[in-house]
Amino acid sequence: MFNPKLEKALNAQINAEMWSAYQYLSMATYFHSIGHAGIAHWFEIQFKEEQDHALILYNFLVTRGGRVKLDPIKSVQTDWETPLAAFEDTLKHEKDVTQMINNLYALAIEENDYTVQNRLRWFIDEQIEEEDEAQKIIDSLKLIDGNGLGLYMFDKELGSRTYSTPAPLNSAVE
Ligand code: FEO
Fold first, then answer.
1. For 134-141, which contacts have Cβ atoms below 8 Å and span 24 or more sequence positions?
2. CB atoms within 10 A of CB 141
3. What is the DSSP letter of 167?
4. What pLDDT band is residue 170 in, cutting at 50, 70 and 90?
5. Is 83 helix (H, G, I), strand (E, B) or coil?
6. What are the domain boundaries of the chain?
7. Which of 27, 66, 122, 165 could form an S-S bond across to 61 if both were Cys, CB 3.0 to 4.6 Å?
8. Ligand 1 site, residue 97, Cβ cutoff 6 A
9. pLDDT digits over 109-164, tens only?
């Protein structure tokens, strides 16, 4: 039987990843509404990635004989004051997710579950990237400082973001 404490915590993480997906899709629609289709595209990819994160944990639980329980996803914000405010919220949220992953990892250590620890290491690395990307975008938006041409160019740049399936979804053990 899968460790019940870890099962509960992993299910909570699945829910948090699905909430993140929902939040980023909400940001995408906000950026469409203010005419930044490129930034919206960036958040649409972020939406896919968050669903991948949930699916990686889902696959892990299923493979290990755990039970996935899908709770309701709480509502998300729909509007932001500025593009910068949306990315500041993104960074803050990613820092919160990092803390959740750290807590989950600490629990896996406490429960002597090496398989969960191993699975979570991918997420620990992923969070470094997630925070770094959001920080770099914040830095760029601060430099642009509302300049129309700067925002136009930046929107084009974010519009070129590409999506690729994360390695753990190609293999149960990556
Ligand atoms: Fe699933 Fe953006 O962390």
1. 134/87, 134/90, 134/91, 134/94, 135/91, 137/87, 137/90, 138/84, 138/87, 138/88, 138/91, 141/83, 141/84, 141/87
2. 21
3. G
4. confident
5. helix
6. 4-170
7. 66
8. yes
9. 999 999 999 999 999 999 999 999 999 999 999 999 999 999 999 999 999 999 99
| Positive or negative torsion for Cα 28, 97, 51, 7 | negative
Q: Please state the atom number of ligand 1 nearest to the C-alpha of residue 94.
A: 2
CA of 149 from ligand 1 middle (Å) equals 30
Residue 172: predicted pLDDT = 56
Give the residue from 130, 154, 162, 129 showing the smallest Cα distance to 24.
130
Indicate whether residue 50 lines ligand 1 (CB < 6 A): yes
Q: Is 41 in the pocket of ligand 1 (CB under 6 A)?
A: no
- Homologous superfamily (CATH) of 4-170 is Ferritin, core subunit, four-helix bundle (1.20.1260.10)
At residue 94, the 3 state secondary structure works out as helix
Express the helix, strand and coil content of the chain in percent, nearest 5 each: 75, 0, 25
